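Researcher: Next entry in the queue.
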Amino acid sequence: LVARTLQVQAIGGARETPSSPLLRAASSARRQEDDENQPLIDQDAIERIPSTVSNYYEITEITEMGRMASLFFSRGGRNMFYLCLVIYLYGDLAIYGAAVAKSVRDVACNYKPPNMTSPLNISDSELCWADSTKTRLDAYRIFLAVFVCTIGQFVFCNVTKTKYLQIATTLMRWQAFIVMVVLATLTLVNGSPASPPASRISGLPNLFGVCVYSFMCHHSLPGLVTPISDKKKLYSLMLGDYAIILSFYFLLAFTGIFAFRDINDLYTLNFQPSPSDSWFLWSLHFFLSLFPVFTLSTNFPIIAITLSNNLKSLFLTEGRMYSYWTRTVVFPLLALVPPTCVAMATHSLEFLVGITGSYAGAGIQYIVPAALVYYARQEAGSALGVGVRNQHKSPFKHWMWVVFVQLWAITCIVFVTWNHISSAVS
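Model: Structure for this entry, 426 residues:
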């Protein structure tokens, strides 16, 4: 939440750069005043500027994080931002592909080994179908290849106007969340609850990555904030938003923890259909098991297109002409092939989410917003002076909050890295 308010302040000052015509006019007006008794920015100077400096911090147009990085960071800093964003989007696509293929695999594979103790811990080397030689791992990779070859075709197009698709996806997500909470609650009521350990320190590093990934929306924040007409209570709205999200996460997590003794890393797979289910319960379990397929399939091409565009921003020189094949074939393939290879190598969503959130996610959620607001404040101080108030200034306006966010991110990254190294060595 702290980093999110810092980013909103940076969005409000996203034009705080000496190359901006507004700031050149404001700085020129200040230099022309030789009388030290005059204010730093007088009313006449403000009125001569077409778009008044007094309304300079109004958020009226969408300024993406890449644009802000270009305004405030050096060339090296801009490239580091795009690299961090690209790695995060690569992780996103690998997670989406693995989740979809794993969901379809667990629903399609009907062979149950005789020594099976739980449907959640069947080995990948076991057969998928009784009359086939394909293992569960083979089936997973086949479904992943089919998914990428079908949905991945849209990456070579420009998907626009996804409003109604996103609305349908959002409604489906709410429906799935409510059904999962209700079914887990019924399991608790009708059976004996599980007895999980009070704490498990070994899971703390992955918890950081999962939390970052769960609350990650900073790269989409400009598009969410800009359309809001009345921004006077923007931070109160954010606080309420985060409180609702956290409450719902707690509700979903605690009902699952006490309802199931073994929990799949893809939680929806705890609700697999069974032949003993009634038709209504079977349909609910079938819907939840394939829920990632329905929702993630709609987001996969959009994220891949975003990744392709960011790769172009990172590697292509602005103003230079490139061939049609380079733009429409090479970069979409660069967006699709690496995450597909990662998903082919592992389907451990806990590992993928932990790595993506702990490293690239921490950069996007903590390090970049803090750096943006730091440079935005510097530019504002040198170009506009202290007479113009930023109505979107973060409640955490002390410079120590910027330092705290950076130190928190670095500490967590070091802690997670040390845990991974020690686990690998042992």
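Model: The chain has 15 helices and no strands.
Researcher: Noted, moving on.
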